[in-house]
Amino acid sequence: MKQDIFLIEMGQKIRTARKAKKMPINIMADLTKIDMSNLSFLERGMRNCHILSLKSIADVLDMDVKDFL
Question: What is the CATH classification number for the domain harbouring 20?
Answer without folding.
Answer: 1.10.260.40
